[in-house]
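Give me structure tokens for this 235-residue protein.
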Amino acid sequence: MKRYSQQKRLLFAVDCIIFGYDGQELKLMVIQRSFSPFKGDWSLVGGFVEEKESAEDAAKRILKQLTGLDGLYMEQLHAFSAIDRDTVERTISIAYFALIDIQKYKKQINEDFHPAWVSINKLPKLIFDHTEIVELAKKKLRYNAALHPLLFELLPAKFTMPQLQHLYQCVYNTEFDKGNFSRKILSTKLLMKLKEKDKQGSKKGAFYYKVDSKKYTASFNSFLNLVPAQNGWKE
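Here you go.
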């Protein structure tokens, strides 16, 4: 195999920022690092890209190993290439963020990784530049969710409007007016109202909704304009 003989070799890795929603909080999955340096410290899920795979394929492989599932929502975030970001060797990492409904996938999570779900607002100390990676992922999640209906990926198959509003409030760390929120969401025509109600919160109850999968796929790139334009991220 031909090589560029005058060039040094670099390590190529991927890091996965896995966001989950448990019905109460937006959370991040972290794992305990199994090797030195920083063995036992908290880390993002990640690994090295193998010789015959792309960065995207490596991220999909790692997510499959962790969750046992294919087809998770995943999006490329950024390339992190600071010279000193890894204390062992020069390593360039492509970061991806993924969205998971915690309640749906909690039984599939591979315990060999020693995973833990932590509140996005109460992160432990993470190794290397992983805190920086998470902060950038939060900004992009907020930016993209203002334009596209990707937060539905965090929800169970059926959900109430208050549950959906609570999710958006967790992501943006702000309050939304109940009436305006419902009107904007329903104007997208992406939801199907069910006859069943959730009566746990009140006697009157709240109707369940589900996503119209065909419209969701067809309209994913349509602008929602649900929340004001988000600062801190530029395409």
